[in-house]
Amino acid sequence: MPRSEATTRLCALTRTEKPVTDLIRFVLGPDGTIVPDTEARAEGRGVWITLGREAVAEASRKKVFARSLKAEVKVPDDLAGLTHLRLEQRFAAALAMARKAGQLVTGAGKVKAAIESGDILALITASDAAEDGRNKMAQARRALEYAAEEAGETAFTVPHLELLSSDQLGLALGLENVIHAALTTGAAAQSALDKGLRLVRYDA
């Protein structure tokens, strides 16, 4: 079965079979250094580790990569931190694609309007946002979820991601002073949300 079609892989650390969505792949770079393959598309043999900062750090300490690849490898001092950075960059790039596709809005007014209309897939707030602004958006989000629950949509929730700073959001979106954003509906928005939730799970 091609790698892209595989649904499970063996975690080299725990030696347990898991869905690929619960794992992250690492490969050997040209210089013999282990690098995260966040897209799971790089050529060559890979090592799959449970998705999580602690799992990656433990795999580094226990020399799991060298043992799995049966080769001399160089492991970065902070592979867990590097992996976080790559996942973060992947999320930022996906947000840019969502904006390009017209599936991301920014600014308190537009975000609040998206929440109130129900045309929202996820709420995004800068990690360094002021408390009052964060609370206003959170209240609007909770009101939407409550209204959906009253209408019988008990499973309806709006994820709230606070993963990037205002500067990071601005750099990703080509804008200045981005504090509030919302992913609306569409494939690009869903892809960005999936990548954001993957980063959340990694850092949990």
TrEMBL record:
Domain YlxR residue range list: 9-78
Name this polypeptide is given: YlxR domain-containing protein
Organism lineage: Bacteria, Pseudomonadati, Pseudomonadota, Alphaproteobacteria, Hyphomicrobiales
The organism's place on the tree of life at top rank: Bacteria
Pfam families: YlxR
NCBIfam families (alphabetical): PRK09190.1
